Amino acid sequence: MALDPAIACERLIQKLREKGIADERVLDAFRKVPRHLFVSGTTPELAYEDTTFPIGQGQTISQPYIVALMTQALELGKDEKILEIGTGSGFQAAILAQFSRRVYTIERHNDLGDRARKLLRSMGLANVTFKIGDGTCGWKQWSPFDRIIVTAGAPVTPETLSEQLAVGGIMIIPTGDRAQQDLIVYRKTEGGLESKSIEKVIFVPLIGQHGWKE
């Protein structure tokens, strides 16, 4: 007998609490976004395991703990304008949409971006704007952003993204080599960027003009 998705989700939330996710709003967002819809070809029980899954084009849906950690680190209220680099399955964007006035998300793979757009629209999430393109260039048209989240590993933090972050804003991005990265949280002040590393992570590479080459 298949495990009920709601029960599987609560088990996942308990694991996230045990790993240090303390923001109840973030945990509640996981209740509102059914992860099994974003992980095709598996059971709800597996979909709510704290692990990654392939989604095609060499990309993955991130481990729930990392999604929760990054979301928590953004210190979201209710009215931030967020830029996400790397739409992927759309799960992170759906989580962010629970908090944000508007999420702008960029995906370089047309089929992934289109699939995510259709899924989020079917869920009634109308505050997410999609673009197919090079995420390392950001989305200058809608800048500055209150928050920027990058869901792929960069060799260095692209200046294009730093420039599009509003003063007082927060950006989170994994930087390092292709094998492992440091998850860096930046705060932008009048004097520049302040940074701290919060976790060792492994992400797919950030491909683009200001990232890794193809």
Structural overview:
This protein has helices at residues 5-18, 24-32, 44-47, 64-73, 91-97, 110-122, 159-163; strands at residues 53-56, 59-61, 81-85, 102-107, 128-132, 145-150, 165-176, 181-189, 192-201. The chain has 214 residues and is α/β, with parallel strands linked by helices. The protein has a 7-stranded mixed sheet with strand order 5-4-3-6-7-8-9. It has a two-stranded antiparallel sheet with strand order 1-2. β8 and β9 form a beta hairpin. The longest helix has 14 residues, at 5-18.
Question: Main traits of this protein?
Answer:
single chain; 214 residues; alpha/beta; seven-stranded mixed β-sheet; two-stranded antiparallel ribbon; 7 helices; 29% helix; globular
Rg measurement, Å: 16 Å
Record field, number of beta strands: 9
Largest sheet: 7 strands, mixed
Helical percentage: 25-40%
Mean pLDDT: 95
User: What gap, in angstroms, lies between the N and C termini?
Assistant: 44 Å
User: How big a fraction of the residues is strand?
Assistant: 25-35%
